[in-house]
């Protein structure tokens, strides 16, 4: 299929349709509304389920209900709306039904603004709902990657019976880029054995997240954690650029990761051996790869459009082996390549000054 | 368990009473004298009579009926507090040929889940809701519900519900009846045998409304909570009759003409 000029939000919607999404429930909120509007037209044309809910609270519980039937279901929203969905997401996690959540992040906290931000990293990666859980979190940096990860999201959600987030910021949602859509998959008609379809010719199925006996809830939690361990072992994804001989490795995701590429090229042109590690899965996080890189690099620079959320996971992975520095913009401000280049140069200069010293402070 | 078999004088055995197929053969956790058991039985009898057990999906609430999924022999989901209508909508939209119902109490439906029930009704969602109104939060131990009567003592209105402080009760059947998407909205009671028979008839009509695709149907059932009211089961039924009926009049608040032609 040839490349077309596609807007991020609409490309995700069409990719979901081609991946066989049977039902979409959502509520308007900037900067993801085009996704809902696209679904309002295309899902109805195709005879699939589209419903504009009365709130994000209702939308996520409609997703929960539809997911209980074993159908491919999704919702999309932006930061404040995703906050409202956290209750439902916890129940979905606790009953192990698959679904896909798209969060086109905007500036916060509170009403914040509608400009691009990465402020919901903690909410997605550490899980904003109550209880112990991690959803799979996929972070695209281009429209093409958003399309590819949307298709992957449905497969992973079903494979592990889990929540998969597509976590992007308003930049990727709103920008247009040439990209290629996947082929249209036929809708699956068969339902999984656990689904609620009416107890015809089989014992009844119950989908619930309640385990009143503490030992039973503990056993369920152990089972859930074992599943998460399996995801950790199998589903880590990241992109690297110029890390083999790098002295400074930038770690950045999504839009920040994409901008960092320009800064790294400029740094290389200036004779600084810089490289990039861009996590594609924010959970599971590429902690082993970062820990391994820490054996060979002089320092890491984390670049984010938030106050330093992924920074904590990078620090955990590096575990004090080398300095981890941070550059950020917040409130919907996008970091420019020159700013990141300046941060790379600054850390590089400090490394040269402090290299003979074994104990490095101030980073 | 008593399987309902009785031997007649002429030696022939006949079944005069038995557990509906749509009820599971288990002991419930409900308190003695609580009318949840009656409501469950009526729903199960209706499901049996309509022959829809194998295509009915229930959605349980948070509240005393949180374990309803254990008591019905049906596919069941357990919703978050108040969100049963949204969950039922998600199920019904994907599987429109199944029968989907929610079973909700007054805290669930009339407080925390008000938005979900109103919008399910106003969209004319083709689902059925059984609404248990016992004027109190049972599961958490007897706090004020949105339907608690003025002056009624609860653990969170220890001096009686002072409407100046706590506001006035809400009448959900009357409220939902004003919405164009509602096809069938009625209030019945479970305080005596005659009322129970009328309640069963209404529950059957509500499911028939869904089977005919006419839109949203709800049966509100005035129910007793002897434990949290501090009354014996018999006193509690009398309390429903003497105190709840005057505030929550029984009646048909919305019955579409198409529904009248059904029955």
Quick description:
The complex is a heterodimer of chains A (363) and B (263). Chain A is of the alpha/beta class and 363 residues long.
- Class from secondary-structure proportions of chain A: alpha/beta
> Which class of secondary structure composition applies to the elements of chain B?
alpha/beta
Helical percent range of chain B? 25-40%
Q: Work out the count of structural domains of chain A.
A: 2
Q: Determine the N-to-C terminus distance of chain A.
A: 48 Å
CATH level 4 superfamily of the largest domain in chain A: Thiamin diphosphate (ThDP)-binding fold, Pyr/PP domains
The number of helical runs of chain B is 11
Rg of chain B (C-alpha, Å): 18 Å
CATH fold name of chain B, please? Rossmann fold
Description:
- The complex is a heterodimer of chains A (363) and B (263).
- Chain A has helices at 8-18, 33-45, 56-68, 79-84, 86-95, 121-127, 143-160, 170-174, 214-234, 254-269, 287-293, 310-318, 337-354; strands spanning 4-7, 23-26, 49-52, 73-77, 99-105, 136-138, 163-169, 176-179, 206-207, 238-241, 248-251, 274-279, 281-283, 299-304, 324-328.
- By secondary structure, chain A is an alpha/beta fold.
- In chain A, strands 3-2-4-5-7-6-13 form a seven-stranded mixed beta sheet, with helices on both faces.
- The N and C termini of chain A lie far apart (48 Å).
- Chain B has a single domain, classed as Rossmann fold (3-Layer(aba) Sandwich), CATH 3.40.50.
- Chain B is built from eleven helices and nine strands.
- The longest helix of chain B has 19 residues, at 193-211.
- The interface between A and B is large, with 39 and 35 residues.
Observed structural traits:
heterodimer; A: 363 residues; alpha/beta; 2 domains; 5-stranded mixed beta sheet; 19% strand; globular; disordered C terminus; B: 263 residues; Rossmann fold; 7-stranded mixed beta sheet; 18% strand
List the helices and strands and how they pair.
The complex is a heterodimer of chains A (363) and B (263).
Chain A: E1 4-7, H1 8-18, E2 23-26, H2 33-45, E3 49-52, H3 56-68, E4 73-77, H4 79-84, H5 86-95, E5 99-105, H6 121-127, E6 136-138, H7 143-160, E7 163-169, H8 170-174, E8 176-179, E9 206-207, H9 214-234, E10 238-241, E11 248-251, H10 254-269, E12 274-279, E13 281-283, H11 287-293, E14 299-304, H12 310-318, E15 324-328, H13 337-354
Parallel strand pairs in A: 2-3, 2-4, 4-5, 5-7, 6-7, 11-12, 11-14, 14-15
Antiparallel strand pairs in A: 1-8, 6-13, 10-12
Chain B: E1 5-7, E2 13-15, H1 36-50, E3 56-60, H2 68-71, E4 75-78, H3 84-94, E5 99-105, H4 106-112, H5 114-122, E6 128-133, H6 163-166, H7 172-177, E7 182-189, H8 193-211, E8 216-222, H9 226-229, H10 233-247, E9 251-255, H11 257-262
Parallel strand pairs in B: 3-4, 3-5, 5-6, 6-8, 7-8
Antiparallel strand pairs in B: 1-2, 7-9
């Amino acid at each position: 299929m040839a490349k077309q000029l596609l807007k991020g939000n609409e490309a995700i919607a069409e990719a979901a349709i081609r991946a066989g999404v049977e039902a979409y429930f959502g509520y308007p909120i900037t900067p993801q509304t085009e996704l809902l509007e696209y679904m309002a037209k295309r899902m109805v044309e195709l005879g699939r389920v589209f419903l504009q809910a009365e709130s994000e609270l209702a939308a996520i519980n409609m997703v929960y209900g539809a997911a209980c039937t074993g159908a491919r279901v999704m919702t999309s929203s932006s930061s404040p709306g995703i906050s409202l969905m956290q209750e439902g997401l916890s129940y979905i996690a606790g009953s192990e039904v698959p679904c896909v959540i798209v969060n086109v992040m905007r500036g916060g906290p509170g009403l914040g603004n509608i400009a691009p931000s990465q402020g919901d990293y903690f909410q997605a990666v550490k899980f904003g709902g109550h209880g112990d859980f991690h959803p799979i979190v996929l972070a695209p940096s281009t429209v093409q990657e958003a399309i590819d990860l949307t298709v992957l999201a449905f497969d992973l959600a079903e494979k592990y019976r889990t929540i998969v987030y597509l976590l992007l910021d308003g930049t990727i949602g709103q920008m247009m880029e040439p990209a290629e859509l996947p082929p249209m998959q036929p809708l699956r008609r068969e339902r999984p054995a656990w689904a609620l379809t009416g107890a015809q010719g089989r014992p009844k199925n119950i989908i619930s997240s309640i385990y009143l006996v503490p030992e039973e809830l503990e056993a369920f939690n152990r089972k859930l954690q074992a599943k998460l361990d399996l995801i950790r072992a199998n589903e880590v994804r990241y992109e690297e650029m110029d890390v083999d001989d790098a002295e400074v490795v930038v770690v950045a995701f999504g839009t920040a990761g994409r901008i960092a590429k320009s800064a790294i090229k400029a740094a290389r042109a200036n004779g600084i051996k810089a490289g990039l590690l861009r996590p594609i899965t924010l959970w599971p996080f590429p902690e082993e790869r970062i820990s391994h890189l820490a054996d060979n690099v002089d320092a890491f620079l984390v670049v984010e459009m938030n106050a330093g959320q992924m920074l904590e996971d990078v620090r955990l992975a590096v575990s004090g082996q080398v300095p981890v520095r941070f550059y950020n913009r917040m409130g919907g401000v996008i970091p420019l390549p020159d700013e990141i280049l300046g941060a790379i140069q600054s850390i590089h200069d400090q490394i040269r000054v402090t290299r003979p010293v074994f104990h490095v402070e101030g980073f | 368990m008593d399987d309902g078999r009785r031997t007649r004088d002429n030696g022939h055995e006949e079944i005069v009473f038995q557990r509906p197929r749509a009820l599971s053969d288990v002991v419930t956790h409900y308190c003695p004298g609580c009318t949840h058991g009656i409501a469950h039985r009526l729903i199960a009898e209706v499901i049996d009579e309509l022959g829809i057990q194998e295509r009915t999906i229930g959605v349980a609430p948070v509240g005393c009926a949180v374990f309803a999924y254990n008591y019905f022999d049906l596919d069941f989901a357990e919703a978050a507090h108040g969100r049963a209508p949204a969950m039922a909508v998600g199920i019904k939209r994907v599987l429109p040929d199944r029968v989907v119902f929610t079973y909700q109490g007054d805290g669930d439906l009339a407080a925390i889940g008000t938005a979900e029930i109103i919008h399910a009704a106003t969209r004319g969602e083709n689902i059925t809701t059984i609404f248990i109104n016992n004027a109190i939060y049972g599961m958490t131990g007897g706090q004020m519900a949105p339907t608690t009567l003025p002056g009624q003592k609860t653990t969170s209105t220890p001096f009686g519900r002072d409407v100046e402080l706590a506001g006035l009760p809400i009448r959900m059947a009357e409220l939902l009846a004003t919405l164009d998407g509602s096809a069938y909205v009625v209030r019945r009671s479970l305080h005596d045998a005659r009322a129970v028979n009328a309640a069963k008839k209404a529950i059957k009509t509500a499911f028939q409304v869904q089977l005919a695709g006419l839109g949203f149907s709800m049966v509100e059932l005035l129910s007793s909570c002897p434990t949290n009211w501090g009354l014996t089961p018999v006193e509690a039924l009398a309390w429903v009759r003497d105190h709840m009926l005057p505030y929550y009049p029984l009646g048909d608040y919305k019955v579409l003409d198409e529904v009248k032609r059904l029955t």
